[in-house]
Amino acid sequence: MAALTSGFMPLLSVFGKPPSSRFAMNPGLVSYNNLPSSRSPITAGLKNVATKCSKATNASSDATSEVIRHFDPSVWDGHDFTSASSNHLIDERKLKELKKEVKTMFSLAAADSFRELDLIDKIQRLGVAYHFEDEIEHILQRTNNDDYTHFFDQNIFKNEHADLYYVSLRFRLLRQAGYYVSTDVFKNFKDEKGEFQANLASDVQTMLSLFEASYLGFRGEDIMDEAMAFSTKHLNSMLTSLSFPLALQVQNALMMPLQRIPERVYARYYIPIYEQEISQNKTLMEFAKLDFNSVQLLHRNEINEVQSWWKRMNIRSKLQYDVRDRVVEAYAIINNIYFEPKFSQARIHLAKLWVIITLIDDTYDVFGNIDELKQLCDAFQRWDANCTNHLSDAMKLVFLEVLNFFNDIETSMIKAGNVAGVPFFKKE
């Protein structure tokens, strides 16, 4: 099974590398020890399990295990993903006009380094940064080439709070974009005892900026651990005295830090908060809301397409054992990697791939006996639809559905003029 699964990787690569984002910087940011076992969904999802296995013999592909296992049904059964979005007509012309207006904001902020980074921060939080990747990369590259002294010499800061706010913002934006930034600059905000200066804790925005930056520390960077402890302590102490919307932003940051929440989920939460800010830019606000609705409508249509494909396959009614219906979950996982509209076809294909892998996984884990599974593995190695006579009915059905899936992907990608990775998969 491991060899089979590893063969999917070349197929994934044909869709290209995910766009740079705050999730792509530091593999150490994710603690895999905290993730549930890959076996958890199966065990948790099983109910009314009754297993009756045939006695072990020398034999035969005819020998099967009589297995009755029922997974929990999909929580999305009966949910219509088009109903909530059908009433929202997207004004594409207005969207393009607003995009042009937002784009001019970069040139207007060019003379002020702080304004540039603050604009990037707002655009990223609102979920529209994918429209301005070139502009953002240009600014961050230039920012990385300049040292902190360059910015401090501009006298744009009035006090040490603003200094730390800016330093933390610069540090976070650069690190999450893949640039290495030294942590030494944070030493400027420590007292003679080697602790962060107590007076810095009086400004909530400064603490929030430091808190979010602290999650981009590498292992062994003790000062970032200290920054996290310092900012967390003071944000918690200030929380009860804050008013909306700042109170909500701080509360959510403490529960789910910026680096640990999918971009689209964060945008959905942040848009109403930004809308309540006195300093909000109305053009940027309107653009973010229109864009969110437009992208959400696309995502809903994609889920419906994958669900329709799964229903047409109707494999659960054809097999003598149960398999998981996790179409929406599969799509959600892929959507968290590629949410941009230009990756629409990739999301659909990869969501279907995830469903196919789940089908194979349940076949190996739930139903097939060792003889049947060896024969299925052998069939995958040969990859020939004409050589299935030795397979049991269930194994033949699974094998042919897998072949059909990859053939369909190859056909659709070639038709669209794209490079298909299926030959690499077959070779693996």
Automatic annotation (TrEMBL):
Residues in Terpene synthase N-terminal domain copies: 77-254
Domain Terpene synthase metal-binding: 311-418
A UniProt-annotated Pfam family: Terpene_synth
Protein keywords: Lyase, Magnesium, Metal-binding
GO-annotated molecular function: magnesium ion binding; terpene synthase activity
GO biological process: terpenoid biosynthetic process
SUPFAM superfamilies xref list: Terpenoid cyclases/Protein prenyltransferases (SSF48239), Terpenoid synthases (SSF48576)
Superkingdom classification of source: Eukaryota
PANTHER family in UniProt: ALPHA-HUMULENE_(-)-(E)-BETA-CARYOPHYLLENE SYNTHASE (PTHR31225:SF93), OS04G0344100 PROTEIN-RELATED (PTHR31225)
UniProt-recorded name of the protein: Valencene synthase
Species, as recorded: Thalictrum thalictroides
